[in-house]
Amino acid sequence: MASQSRRDAKDEQLDQVRKDPQDTNLTTQQGVKIDHTDDALTAGERGPTLLEDFHTREKITHFDHERIPERVVHARGSGAYGQFQPYSGWLSDYTAARFLTDPQEQTPVFVRFSTVQGSKGSNDTVRDVRGFATKFYTSQGNYDLVGNNMPAFFIQDGIKFPDFVHAVKPEPDTGIPQGASAHDTLWDFVQLQPETMHMMMWLMSDRAIPRSYRMMQGFGVHTFRLVNAEGRGTFVKFHWKPMLGTHSLVWDETQKIAGKNSDYNRQDLWENIANGDYPEWELGVQLVDESREHDFDFDLLDATKIIPEEEVPVQPVGKLTLNRNPDNFFAETEQVAFHTANVVPGIDFTNDPLLQARNFSYLDTQLIRLGGPNFSYLPVNRAISDISTHQRDGFQQNRVHTSKATYHKNSLSGGCPAMADDQDVFRHYQEKVEGAKISKRSESFKDHYSQATLFWNSMAHWEKDHIISAFRFELGKVEHTHIREGVVEHLNHVDHDLAVAVAEGVGVTPPSTAARSNHGKSSPALSQENSVKDTIATRQVAVLVADGVDSGEVEQIKQELTDRGAVPQVLSLRDGSVRASSSGHVQVDARIDTLASVVFDAVVVPGTGESVQNLSADGYSVHFVTEAYKHFKPVAASQEGVAMLQRAGVNGVRHADDSQSVANDHGVITAVSNEGSLPSEFFEEFASTLAGHRVWDRDTSHVPA
Ligand code: HDE
């Protein structure tokens, strides 16, 4: 997919610290060779362990100290290296940042994706915001874009962050729930803090349950500032758009995946990179001239708001490719330290009060998490540009500074490090500010509902259904009735129908009239209905086989899917191989009961009658098909495989027959095979349905799965 080389300046820098035990002997941390590490030194074979056994003590002591505090939020994450490259140089009118404007410059990056609420070991597929943090190792120093997969945020001012996080985290007495927001304290916070409403709409939408880290958008969230070489500033919002489109799981599925494979998103990212299917995103910018700062019906400094793409278009500026897995989870993914204040010349802040608080928080949190002020020299954090400071000493100092003078100005070290005076110098944007000191939210931050309504109005019918179900699920877990009522009350300011639908589901009295009339505006770019739907690359397809299967059909299915970039896996009732209907065998990739339909994007059941009969007699296999159908996935079968669909309860759909060799009824694709060969139209139908990811106009409410 991607042309970028995996080898880059960061990779070469890491070579200096990579340590492979190949051809070495076991030693202590002091480099003394050891020939015994299974038994401690004792006084006699059954006697007490001796204090002088320095190897045992060192081994256990190190082990005792292996853990560091997990991140306060975003504790669970997965990371990968790659590169970013701009398409052209036009953005240099707006920014002096070389990594955004020099199309010849390929900048190494490390990206960490994360969930927010749960601990390090929590499930991947929970309903939550996903972090999307990118460290650009630019030639002008490190730039961190620490974003999320949703473009708004819960609160407007950073001073509320501890309140919000305390509310969403597991409750303090029970420690429940882990990796979930469906509990009283979060919703109590929400009902008393209406600025959360826009973000809660996103959180209740399918954005909160992404199919893959590779298939989600990223957003810088805040309005930042670009500054060009002449010092002129322009407001900017950053967007990441996945080349594979933005796709989500369905709620029932996420809960099942949590049991079947709690590392679902982590494994998906790792395996695709390992297989050479490098995920890519396009970086886009929304630019707003400073003269237009007050032209919007919201405040650009309010992080609970988006700038609708229809008002200010997202202009693509370059591409991010992730193409290298880390070597060591702890050293790299755990120790990576992002900081919103890591900026390079050409990028600056605005007075967004949330951003200002973040600029304090991230450095502070790394000091406790990584144990001192030298974490920027850890391999994953180290810049590839030269680092030369007067900062000295501190825990874990691992540089040997040789100069005598550790102060500026000095004559003893020749005045070095000297002040630079070139285009790589960071100079703060000269924004004029004045005002009285005041603890008060700006009036321009007071509209908490219009964009929640905009989001609601922009959803496709199935997205609206999912949002209603999500609110019902979450509030259904809330024990206090007054909290349920409070949330419904706010929803009635967003959209009356939404409030009524939620109220009816959670047993509170539906509001009789709207608290606010719906403005009727929408932003089509917000709907996943309008996402990229032209590829089946990397989609996982289960091909169910059993003894007596038509090997020609299986080969053809595998070939056609692989040619289009999908990843077929042959599953059967046992490992190894199954007997083919003619002669020979069909190789099996995995046993059906070691996996589940929920970890696949689609399922195909090839002929023949004997194979289908064998599968139909196995409850797990039948359930596999039923469940895939329930979750709106493309389900395909050759003519004889139709019997399996019927056994799985996929009834009432039109099938291929002698009059019509291929049928596609609500994503159930069937074909009449001609001497072991399926018509090409079958694969075209299957691929276009799979590219759409799910078949939302299928009614599966009656399907028991
Ligand atoms: Fe963070 N956030 N955050 N946050 N955040 C952290 O930093 C914080 C906010 C985001 O993969 C912490 O190193 C405050 C918005 C990501 O390592 C901490 C406020 C957005 C990550 C912190 C916010 C984010 C973090 C915890 C409100 C989206 C994971 C550990 C003022 C634009 C980065 C750490 C990674 C992590 C503080 C709000 C995204 C405590 C105080 C808004 C992706 O410093």
Automatic annotation (TrEMBL):
Decomposes hydrogen peroxide into water and oxygen; serves to protect cells from the toxic effects of hydrogen peroxide. Pfam families: Catalase (PF00199), Catalase-rel (PF06628), Catalase_C (PF18011). Residues 1-22 have a biased composition (Basic and acidic residues). There is a cross-link at H339-Y362 (3'-histidyl-3-tyrosine (His-Tyr)). SUPFAM superfamilies: Class I glutamine amidotransferase-like (SSF52317), Heme-dependent catalase-like (SSF56634). PROSITE patterns: CATALASE_1, CATALASE_2, CATALASE_3. Residues 510-530 have a biased composition (Polar residues). Heme binds at R71, R112, F161, R358, Y362, R369. Its EC number is 1.11.1.6. Transmembrane segments: none annotated. Belongs to the catalase family. HPII subfamily. The lineage of its organism: Bacteria, Bacillati, Actinomycetota, Actinomycetes, Pseudonocardiales. The active site is at H74, N148. Residues 1-46, 510-531 are annotated as: Disordered. Keywords: Heme, Hydrogen peroxide, Iron, Metal-binding, Oxidoreductase, Peroxidase. This is Catalase.
